[in-house]
Amino acid sequence: GIPELGPEEQDGNEKLGKAIAATADHTIVLGTMFAQEIEQGLGNAPHTRYARLDDFIADSARFPKEEWVLLLEPALPDLYY
Length: 81
Description:
By secondary structure, this protein is α+β, with helices and mostly antiparallel strands. Helix content is 33%, strand content 10%.
């Protein structure tokens, strides 16, 4: 998610969800402060929400690792990788 959005970009996390929905077969959303907005953008696209990363790791065998693409956007804008 994008934490530093201004008023003109307040729907940025929803737009991110829409962009992901247009390209991904299935999306994993972790329970962050941005999850609800991203899921609004995903709409009816197939996705699974996990409360914590540990929950996903415990269930990750459901998803073939060779098909993963990881999009990581930390909450603090100075930590982008």
